[in-house]
Amino acid sequence: xxxxxxxxxxxTKLELLASxxxxxxxxxxxxxPELAKAGGFRLDDPQGEVGIEFLVVTDTxxxxxxxxxxxxxxxxxxxxxxxxxxxxxxxxGVLGRRWAYDGCHDPVLVTQLLALIEGRVHAxxxxxxxxxxxxxxxxxxxxxxxxxxxxxxxxxxxxxxxxGTELPAPQGTALRLHRVLRPAPDNxxxxxxxAMGHVAGSWRVPDGTRARGLLVVLHAGPRT
Length: 224
Hints:
Strand 9 (about 165-170) and strand 10 form a beta hairpin. This protein is globular. It contains three helices and 13 strands, in the order E-H-E-E-E-E-E-H-E-H-E-E-E-E-E-E. The strands form two sheets. Strands 1, 2, 3, 4, 5, 6 and 11 form a seven-stranded antiparallel β-sheet that branches. A six-stranded antiparallel β-sheet has the order 7-12-13-10-9-8, with helices on one face. By secondary structure, the chain is mostly beta strands.
């Protein structure tokens, strides 16, 4: 299990994201973000080398607060061929220099996300070591996703649009990450008919309550 270090980061994750988010096509703000941490969870890297975090942040700079899903990976050295996905570097009080990447372009995160959807790994608490996050739910219908087919090339094929991020996955499927988070009706995630699997979770909203909705959907094929 990954060990969570409670230490200083310079700059902080929110400071890095405040500079990076406005460059994304799915960012809805018009100016400099005013960010607060709103939730998220972690996944473990089986090799113990890469930190994997699905961070939810809320931006209150606009007319209405907006929550975003930001999957990040933290590495002790640059990821070859992923310069375009670099969010920034941080100095970690225990681990030293860390390179933070948009995790949709990191094959370690994508592989573990597919394993989560299949139910072979469990979401971990964002702030406590060796503690499952019971609020994160998932489903999957179908055969094995043949993770050996997922390569670094596939991970770098992730594309952003105004709605989120899409990544081609094995066997003709596609992962769709909901970057702009919206609460599900009646607190129950709505799955589109082409969905083969999903990940859902919860996050805090500015009034102190919690919202719940879809984070990731595995579609039967790319969206057209």
